[in-house]
What we know:
Layout: E1 2-5, E2 11-13, E3 48-50
Antiparallel strand pairs: 1-2, 1-3
Amino acid sequence: MKYICDICGWAYDEEQGCPEGGIAPGTKFEDLPDDFLCPLCFVRKGLFSQA
């Protein structure tokens, strides 16, 4: 599943995770820490939409 940042369009892909943010591949979006930030524009995960 993928989630898109509503502000800048960066995509979080659960299969890939976010290695630059220390998030392992296979990590579900709902399991991301509450303080997860978009690595491009630094908004919180509440501003992401399911793709």
